[in-house]
Write a structure and sequence with these properties.
7-stranded mixed beta sheet, magnesium, pyruvate, alpha/beta, about 550 residues, about 15% strand, 6-stranded parallel beta sheet
């Protein structure tokens, strides 16, 4: 046994090995010694967050760019506040490590055997662990220093293999105990496919790609989560077939690609993309997850769409399990199918909206007609679960990996704190620009505090229409085209959002016209040392054009 090497150092060294550069943390006495004595002394920078939910969302945003994110909280009162963020990371396959500083064995036994309680205890040693067993791919308890290396390695290997969150309970009395140093390097588990099923699926899909007169590729989010960007791009150009993405996979590949036709998201898609999907006689969906928010009123035609995702191939009545997306793409690449003879109509390019007069009141659609001039290859765009999904869906994002939204789980309030993690994970000095609804921003506005403290400079647009617009839209969209009132539960208490800049020490603007918006953008782009909050005031019944299909 190496008596100079400890459990606390082991966890830090393994996290650093996996590429973690920042740890989002909330001070808690069960975790503070590990953070102070081990993380602070390492190459991992501690980002002191304001609450556990924001820390979880920040770690999620960080992981989407860096490939791993982590947060450290204290037992129960802290960990259970992070449940929603970890649930979202689980649903969307984001590799986040939750480290929960946990009471010592002595405290635990005293509580269980005598009833003498320590703060944060609920019902003994299983409470937090059992909660996170349902939301992670590994939930472990480090309560023995000799087993700690094996337990930690198992959890972290699951995280990078499954691309989903893991939960590690680090007991306060384990941190300084000696253990063996790391052996070897952590690597993801190998990908497994059934050879016969893989061969059969490749043959079947190749035949359809060769015979279809109007094939279409639908690129999904698993391409990003599994790191298949290069292979997928190579396949697309080998096939020479147009492709679309989904909201969850928007800008996974470069939207300037000549084969890119647009984002296909049901009725919210552009008219040209809807026509493309309707006319296609075979659609190959690579890594697409079917959700109500990426079908949006569109009846999926399973007889002409082959779905390759979640390690299965599904096409009509054909079902083939244990076929990995990566192996199937490899098989298609080896098949050398190419379609030089396709005669597809040209998809309309993104038009430039007419410039509105400076004194004209901003509309929801008008905002998204105005903003593209500020989005280039040096921009990362993010959208919250709100009516912003519709506007941002059709916003051209030139840079691959330049768009982030939690559109499958869709927790409102995600994107503001996620911007903290995105800024810290961004190695290319791209400007982070995110769009939030006012209702969502009220849930996590303290993100401005962390961003100001660490000199981060995202531009956060808060679209202030005074209501939970998307909730009203989902429940009864006809209100937006009538004189009827919104549901009372959808009406927000008004905030002066731009004034939050004075509270947190950053910069803020309140705009209601395009001239004011232009001035605010000039100021925000010049502000490199703190977040900029731009409150965009619009009428409460103004909605993006591609959301009107449900209104009428």
């Amino acid at each position: 046994m190496n008596t100079d090497y400890t459990v606390g150092r082991y966890l830090v060294d393994r996290l650093r090995e996996l590429g973690l550069g920042h740890l989002f943390s909330i001070a808690g006495d069960y975790s503070i010694e590990w953070v102070n004595r081990y993380v602070q002394q390492s190459q991992i920078e501690v980002i002191e967050e304001v609450n556990e939910l924001n820390a979880g969302f920040a770690a999620d945003g960080y992981a989407r760019i860096r490939g791993i994110g982590a947060l450290c909280v204290t037992y129960s009162a802290g960990a259970l506040s992070a449940v929603n963020a970890i649930a979202g990371a689980f649903v969307e396959k984001v590799p986040v490590v939750l480290i929960n500083g946990t009471p010592s064995i002595k405290r635990t036994l005293a509580f269980e055997q005598t009833g003498f309680s320590s703060h944060h205890f609920i019902s003994g040693r299983e409470t937090d662990l059992q909660t996170f067993e349902h939301l992670t791919v590994a939930a472990v308890r480090v309560d023995n220093p000799d087993l700690a290396p094996m337990i930690i390695d198992y959890a972290l290997t699951q995280c990078i293999s499954e691309k989903r969150p893991v939960y590690i309970e680090l007991l306060e009395d384990m941190v300084d105990l000696s253990c063996q140093p790391p052996q070897g390097t952590l690597r993801p588990a190998r990908i497994m496919s059934d050879p016969a099923n893989l061969e059969q699926s490749v043959e079947q899909i190749n035949r359809k790609l060769e015979s279809a007169s109007k094939p279409l590729i639908w690129v999904g989010v698993e391409v990003d989560r599994l790191g298949l960007h290069e292979k997928t791009s190579t396949l697309l150009h080998q096939l020479n077939i147009p492709y679309v993405s989904e909201l969850l996979s928007k800008a996974v590949l470069d939207e300037d690609d000549t084969l890119f036709a647009g984002v296909f998201d049901g009725q919210a898609s552009s008219a040209a993309v809807k026509d493309l999907a309707e006319d296609a006689d075979f659609i190959l969906a690579l890594g697409v997850w079917l959700t109500d928010l990426n079908t949006l009123g569109w009846e999926t035609d399973y007889t002409k769409t082959a779905f390759v995702s979640l390690d299965t191939v599904k096409y009509g009545t054909y079902f083939s399990p244990q076929v990995s997306l990566e192996h199937l793409i490899d098989g298609l690449l080896a098949g050398k199918v190419s379609r030089d003879n396709l005669k597809w109509p040209q998809v309309q390019a993104h038009g430039v909206a007419p410039v509105a007069a400076s004194d004209t009141a901003i509309t929801y659609q008008g905002f998204y007609d105005f903003i593209p001039q500020y989005v280039d290859e040096y921009t990362i765009v993010g959208s919250d679960a709100s009516l912003n999904y519709f506007g941002s869906l059709l916003l051209k994002v030139p840079s691959a990996g330049g768009f982030i939204a939690q559109s499958s789980y869709s927790a409102i309030g995600y994107i503001g704190p996620a911007a903290t993690g995105i800024c810290l994970a961004n190695n290319d000095d791209k400007r982070v620009m995110v769009f939030s609804g006012d209702g969502g921003f009220q849930m996590s506005a303290q993100c401005l505090s962390t961003q100001t403290r660490f000199g981060l400079n995202p531009i956060i647009f808060v679209i202030n229409n005074g209501v939970y617009g998307v909730e009203q839209w989902l429940a009864d969209a006809s209100v937006f085209a009538s004189n009827r009132s919104f549901y009372k539960s959808c009406i927000l208490h008004p905030w002066n959002y731009s004034k939050l800049a004075e509270v947190f020490g950053c910069q803020g603007w309140k705009v209601g016209t395009y001239g004011e918006l232009r001035t605010a953008m000039t100021g925000a782009l010049a502000n490199s040392s703190s977040p900029s909050i731009i409150e965009v005031v619009i009428a409460n019944k103004s909605i993006p054009t591609n959301a009107e299909w449900k209104r009428d």
